[in-house]
Design goal:
Oligomer: single chain
Strand content: 15-25%
Distance between the termini: 32 Å
Number of strands: 32
Length: 762
């Protein structure tokens, strides 16, 4: 499904900006204190959130100043973030420094301090310090100098402008201190001095004035006010962000398995996002580059369209490119932003091939710098070497969730009415959508390789969609069209030299686990047989990766299918096991925020990654019993399922139940002949991470029935099995079950069950 959370994120930023504006006008309070993980919503676009605060680049590079919480030191980040941060105080103008009594840090609009003897961070009496400090000039007092710089005379019969008084009353957390001047009108602004800050009103809008800039100008390099070393720029650095979660389980390979990832970790910010990824054992993250947000091509604008702009990580980032801007033949509204870009018929390097120019620019800006440590790119943003040009182009109807390709479709084709006449102006029929996409992939490949020969192109993410879009037997219509397109290329040498214009394949599978098994197996077979289908030697045979880019469980209210976090926990374990069994190389949680660690969904995701880490992809010993697949498995098989996934020195076995009643299953572990006689390490977990260690011998599990079933088309459906358990044991141990689970099973339709619609099966 198309990720819509970026639009939601923009919405949240606008709400915060509105609150700040209302507060500045004295009409509302600023947001209550929040955790630092949400801080990027109040940071300027160029700032980088870190695990302990934020970094503010100076002049667009990777030097600047941090705002941090320092162990046994100042907690300036918490104070900065709690009150809206940048919207009040502006960026930092210095490092933190200290004297014998307190720590300090200067910002554009204020001076922070925190006593060393204990106590919270707050605002220092900056105005008082300016006035009582060493004179800026022998000719003027500091109070007079402030007046020359546009501020009122300090101490001249204090009174307060009415709108400024309302603002101060609405925001007591600002710690303005007492008034220290009468209002003064300068260039359309009314200004008041207070002990700690200067406030200025323009019309009805009130804000902090940039007195920090004055403080720096007056006192930089003066040990009594702003030591010179406090002005030395800091360099941004990525801390250690890696963590593995499977090191205590059987197996000879330890640490994080790089095949597990997620989408949109940036939504949670660096601190929470990295912690979340580490706790789940995830190595990579897919982020979006929303081309449609650009008003014209500009290298300087590229960072602004990326969802990872503030999310600097040492983990791998995969870039998704999509949506056509108005200057390239699209537009901000729907369905115009889904139009194929203009100029695709031109060579990728042509200036009027808008997509080619965009891809070259964005890939060049994120090209990894060789041997950089930590990994870096020319732009200073996350380096990226894997790119996806577009998401789910096989969704054909604008009314369908995730529709993103084809713009205004051919109405007669979409509605299946009126025959198959030529499309009207602005319409694009099915064949036209496909041909435009295939050319888009070619252009993306040429432009990407020109910018970074080491980059990998992941074919536009394909989804399992409604049969009105794809009524072919395998529902791989768009992929099969791509293979025919490759086979039709006349320049066979160029086709082979370019590796068929792509490297890997990605899938978005928001269906039941057995459908995931079916589709992954179909695409695995298609990739393995690509050379024969294209009729040319595949130079990348054996190295093309199959990635489940989006795995997610969705309600279908029309059918009465409703699920919760606990269902999601069962689903993600079953789906990952089915995908690995069918031949997937990599798997992503879609999206990370949907798997909070406090919920069963997050706990289930952790079990899935923890127990399936380092499974050997496409291992000949992988087995699923019974080998059920496809749609009918959800309504025509009632019984247990076992999936065995071998890895170096271990086997992970996944069990779940498709029977509509609970099922007792006995697991019997025995040492293989000639195995070490010492007690083996056998670990068992349920769907929510409740673990126990087992010994050799027999252990009986009760596998619960599917939690939610529903009736549709005269049948009873269970999209997700129940009673999910995962066991990981050394490969020197054998496991048999009672009853035994056969390799194959007959399908017998389960008729609609009275009272089962959207009800929990007991």
């Amino acid at each position: 499904m198309l990720v819509t959370s970026w639009a939601a994120q923009i919405g949240r930023r606008r709400v915060l900006a509105l609150l700040a504006a209302l507060a500045a006008a004295g009409l509302a309070r600023l947001p209550a204190p929040r955790l630092a993980s949400g801080a990027r919503q109040t940071l300027p676009p160029e700032a980088i959130e870190t695990a302990d605060g934020a970094f503010f680049p100076h002049g667009g590079g990777l030097t600047g100043f941090y705002v941090r919480n320092v162990p046994n030191g100042p907690q300036f980040w918490s104070f900065y973030d709690a009150a809206g941060g940048h919207s009040w105080y502006g960026p930092p103008l210095s490092r933190a420094w200290s004297d014998a009594n307190a720590w300090y840090q200067l910002f554009a609009n204020a001076l922070f301090s925190q006593p060393k003897s204990g106590g919270a961070a707050g605002l220092a009496p900056m105005v008082e310090l300016i006035v009582t400090g060493p004179p800026v000039s022998s000719s003027f007092s500091n109070a007079t100098k402030l007046e020359f710089d546009g501020w009122p005379k300090h101490g001249a019969g204090p009174s307060v402008d009415d709108a400024i008084r309302t603002f101060v009353g609405a925001n007591p957390a600002l710690q303005t201190g007492a008034a220290r001047s009468a209002p003064r009108s300068v260039a359309g602004k009314v200004r008041n001095l207070f002990a700690n800050v200067g406030l200025e009103r323009s019309g009805s809008h009130v804000r902090l004035g940039a007195l920090g800039q004055r403080y720096k100008h007056y006192f930089q390099g003066r040990a009594s006010r702003l030591p010179s070393d406090a002005l030395a720029l800091e360099s941004f650095e990525l801390g250690d962000q890696t963590a593995g979660i499977s090191d205590d389980l059987p197996g000879t390979v330890k640490g994080a398995d790089r095949g597990f990832g997620c989408t949109l970790a940036s939504e949670e910010g660096v601190a929470a996002g990295i912690d979340h990824m580490n706790r789940l054992g995830l190595w990579w993250d897919r982020e979006q580059f929303l081309w449609g947000a650009m008003t014209d091509y500009s290298g300087a604008a590229l960072p602004a369209i990326a969802t990872d702009r503030n999310f600097r990580v040492s983990k791998q980032v995969v870039g998704l490119l999509q949506f056509t801007p108005a200057y390239a033949g699209g537009g901000p509204s729907e369905p115009q932003k889904y139009n194929p870009p203009s100029g695709l018929h031109l060579p990728a390097a042509h200036s009027s091939n808008h997509f080619g120019r965009f891809v070259r620019g964005v890939v060049e800006s994120r090209k990894p710098i060789p041997n950089s440590s930590p990994r870096a790119s020319a732009s200073g943003l996350n380096p990226i070497s894997r790119w996806i040009p577009w998401n789910e182009p096989d969704i054909c109807r604008p009314s369908m969730p995730g529709y993103a390709w084809g713009g205004v479709p051919h109405k007669r084709w979409v509605d299946r009415t009126g025959g198959s006449g030529a499309p009207l102006d602005g319409e694009l029929d099915d064949a036209g959508r496909e041909q435009a996409l295939f050319r888009l992939v070619q252009v993306a490949f040429d432009a990407m390789i020109a910018a970074d020969p080491q980059a990998r192109l992941i074919f536009p993410t394909l989804g399992l969609v409604d049969r009105s879009c794809d009524d072919t037997p395998r529902q791989m219509k768009l992929w099969d069209g791509w293979v025919r397109f490759l086979a039709s290329q006349q320049n066979r040498a160029a086709l082979v030299a370019n590796g068929f214009f792509f490297h890997d394949v990605s899938l978005a599978l928001h269906k039941e686990p057995e459908r995931v098994y079916e589709m992954v197996a179909n695409y695995r077979q298609a990739l393995d047989g690509l050379a024969a289908s294209v009729g040319a030697t595949d130079p990348l045979a054996g190295s093309r990766r199959l990635i489940v880019m989006e795995a997610g469980l969705e309600d279908d209210p029309g059918l009465g299918a409703h699920f919760d976090d606990t269902d999601t926990a069962h689903f993600i374990i079953q789906t990952m096991a089915n995908a690995l069994a069918a031949g997937a190389d990599e798997l992503a949680l879609h999206k990370l925020a949907d798997y909070p660690m406090s919920s069963d969904a997050g706990k289930g995701a952790r079990v899935a990654v923890r127990y399936m880490s380092h499974v050997t992809r496409q291992h000949p010993g992988i087995a699923k019993r019974p080998n059920i697949r496809g749609e009918q498995a959800a309504n025509a098989y009632a019984g247990p399922v076992r999936i065995d996934l071998p890895g170096p020195g271990f086997v992970t076995s996944v069990f779940y139940n498709r029977q509509r009643q609970p099922l007792d299953l006995t697991l019997t572990f025995a040492s293989a002949a000639g195995a070490d006689a010492s007690a083996p390490s056998i670990h068992l977990s349920n769907h929510a991470g409740a673990e126990r260690t087992l010994g050799l011998g027999a252990h009986t599990l009760t596998l619960a029935a599917p939690r939610h079933t529903f009736n549709a088309y005269g049948k009873n459906w269970a999209w997700v099995g129940g009673g999910t358990h995962v066991v990981r044991y050394p490969d020197t141990v054998t496991l048999r079950t009672t009853p035994s689970i056969p390799a194959a099973a007959a399908y017998r339709t389960i008729r609609a069950i009275e009272g089962a619609s959207a009800a929990a099966a007991s």
